[in-house]
């Protein structure tokens, strides 16, 4: 399914697929610190989860966000109705001030990174325009 998902995304971005079958890299759960508030992915345990790292001021990111609804609908129509998606907005002030651009572009939930970029740098260890796909076996830890 991961190859199919990669071809369906078609957004021209790096697709980070972190599943044992797809790469030699082991899929590891991240640890969500309680100082960040409630873990927004905890409710998606047992599902495939696509995390899109975007920035609200970036027109390319806004276009990507607007296409995620269509992707979710297409995947559902092709037999993958339980794929969860989350957008993570960058933590710098220009991104925080522009979060509404991502929220208006898509019905996919948008979560806000903090000023220290904890989600980007420490939790997901990825950058803007990266997509991370977690398979059903990942347990999202909360500490």
UniProtKB/TrEMBL annotation:
Residues of the signal peptide: 1-24
Membrane-crossing residue ranges in chain numbering: none
Keyword match Ribonucleoprotein: no
Protein name: Selenoprotein P
Organism: Biomphalaria pfeifferi
A Pfam family recorded for this sequence: SelP_N
Gene Ontology, cellular component aspect: extracellular region
Principal location class: secreted
Keyword Glycoprotein carried by entry: yes
InterPro entries: Selenoprotein-P_N, SeP, Thioredoxin-like_sf
The entry's keywords: Glycoprotein, Secreted, Selenocysteine, Signal
Annotated GO biological process: selenium compound metabolic process
Stretches assigned to the Selenoprotein P N-terminal domain: 24-139
Subcellular location per the Swiss-Prot or TrEMBL entry: Secreted
Gene Ontology molecular functions: selenium binding
């Amino acid at each position: 399914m991961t190859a199919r998902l990669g071809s369906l995304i078609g957004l021209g971005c790096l697709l980070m697929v972190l599943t044992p079958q797809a790469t030699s890299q082991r899929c590891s759960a991240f640890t969500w610190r309680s100082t960040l508030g409630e873990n927004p992915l905890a409710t998606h345990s047992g599902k495939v989860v696509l995390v899109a790292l975007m920035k609200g001021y970036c027109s390319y990111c806004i276009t990507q966000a607007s296409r995620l609804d269509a992707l979710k609908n297409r995947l559902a129509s092709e037999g993958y109705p339980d794929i969860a998606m989350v957008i993570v907005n960058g933590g710098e002030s220009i991104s925080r001030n522009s979060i509404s651009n991502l929220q208006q572009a898509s019905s996919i939930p948008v979560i806000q990174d903090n000023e220290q970029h904890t989600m980007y740098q420490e939790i997901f260890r990825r950058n803007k325009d990266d997509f991370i796909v977690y398979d059903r076996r990942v347990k999202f830890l909360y500490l």
